[in-house]
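Lecture notes, structural biology module. Today: joint structure prediction for complexes of two components.
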Amino acid sequence: MLESGATIGPVEVAYETYGTLNADKSNAIYVCHALTGDAHAAGHHGDPERRGWWDTMIGPGKPVDTDRFFVVCSNLLGGCQGTTGPGSEDPATGRAYGLGFPLFTVRDLVSVHRGLLAHFGIGHLAGAIGGSLGGMQVLQWVIDYPDDISAAVVVCASSRLSAQNIAFSAVAREAIMRDPDFQNGDYYGTGRSPDTGLTIARMMAHITYLSEASMREKFGRRLQHGEEPRFAFDVDFQVESYLQHQGEAFLKRFDANTYLYMTRVMDYFDAFADPGAVGAMLEQSGTRFLVVSFDSDWRFDTEHSREIVRHLQSWRVPVTFREVESPWGHDSFLLAVPEYLRTVEAFLGRAASDIGV
Amino acid sequence: MLESGATIGPVEVAYETYGTLNADKSNAIYVCHALTGDAHAAGHHGDPERRGWWDTMIGPGKPVDTDRFFVVCSNLLGGCQGTTGPGSEDPATGRAYGLGFPLFTVRDLVSVHRGLLAHFGIGHLAGAIGGSLGGMQVLQWVIDYPDDISAAVVVCASSRLSAQNIAFSAVAREAIMRDPDFQNGDYYGTGRSPDTGLTIARMMAHITYLSEASMREKFGRRLQHGEEPRFAFDVDFQVESYLQHQGEAFLKRFDANTYLYMTRVMDYFDAFADPGAVGAMLEQSGTRFLVVSFDSDWRFDTEHSREIVRHLQSWRVPVTFREVESPWGHDSFLLAVPEYLRTVEAFLGRAASDIGV
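The predicted structure, tokenised, for the full assembly:
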């Protein structure tokens, strides 16, 4: 049963865990992934080249220390990497859901996470952590279940998207939905899928994940081949080659419908839309927050984080706020930025000690 | 004969003029248009709703005062609004050029402008003015012909695009070129054209023309229909409706191949790539410059203008630089921003008086 009132058949959840759950099940940390993440957050499965997307953050001796914590990461509801989503078979029809998959909310994502925790018999989390859409889940989780989490880490997230944020997502969706191979979302098994639209969406998104300065440093106006411009429309500048590679590599691992659903979930997210109700929940919360932004992030800039902090403080929720200097824009949350990693490590370590973990 | 060495058959140029050329032909001002502009810069042709794209700037008593100046604006080489471009017939084949149209440079755009001026018997300009790609033409014009222009006005332009600038253009081009209706540019007369790609390109570009703050003020998170979100993928937020309208309206007036050529011209533009040669030209120039940027412009931010100013000053070219406060981002150059209009008016007026116009 989703927030919208729609129901959805049995939901399978793909997950990974790292570390060991202690006897009283008090050392669990939930990792919530962002728009295009998956359950494979850390370590590798035999191929050291294919490390998890947050291997900088999670592992033995790392900020989310798997020697101390039992770490759970699951593919989100609506996902395309193991968890039930628009590409899964609808038991009512025997065919893929496609756009028949109900629209869900960040609240629904959290409900599924809690279902997985119930499966482990875990009733309380030492911590929850996520960046971008991941941070939105952590925030919503505390609002809906103020007793669930001791330490909440919300990185470069937003309590509600700006017009510009929505605009970028809207153009990405238009690129997918106007692709003639989209077939109103029923492209599974047809041998055609909206690859062009999804490639364009991903290329555009990548521009917003990097800062202008980091693009300047990484690519500048350097050419892909030799010193002389070729004066042609195919790839000539290195930045073009990078974006094309990112766009095309994405096709191998992502489903266009999931892209539509995940971006729309973010558009509609508005954590503090009903401040009275939210305040009533948060005032009784035992959660302490760490909110982190990056000074070069223009996808969700520091103002988004400050708005979260201001709201939390207005209800006397304990919040540590840190704007970290980093040249890498929104992508910083996935990278080895020392001050950021140290801050998370100290925050989680202290919170865990306080609850005897 | 283009800078690349390629030649192109007879070039037709669509232009408009405003005001009256004086007896000694000393009062002409050339208006250079930007990426998607045309020759219709000011006034109207019977329908007051269809005023020129720079009607705030050009007209009787306006900064480019048509009571004083003879104003010329032409559609650029490679354009799609009257001047020879990729949609024109190639006399060698009897079919549209398509991608057979040679790639040209900002230098080539200027050469065509000069050809038109020769037709009027005008050997010297009181002024030249342009925003964005228009400003690039003005800059290149002075570099190539340091005796041509008394007063050069370069608004929110760049001497060379950044990696991020190129990236946005690259994604726009990919959207067009990957559209199955693109047909390698030979879509004329086939009944199909890359409308999807061009729409996506235009929608994305519009995000970069507005500032985050102006989008927030103009649209915020307001919904298109009623107060309650519809939780669907079609247009729900006002910003989505705006972008869709902009994207689709663009199809009626623009050609996808021209979009490819004009963006590529900008990517390759690098005014000061050979500073020795440029300096040698500019040091003998009699041109004075006004360089204007807008503080909320993130497409070509003030740093782009400062780089132009620094180069010009290094060769002792007289430059007035003004960063104008305006919330409207890159689009500001087309809008009635009083300080901006006053600055241009004063600059052109003074320069004209000094040459007795």
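Point to remember: The domain at 165-263 of chain A is CATH 1.10.1740.110 (Rna Polymerase Sigma Factor; Chain: A).
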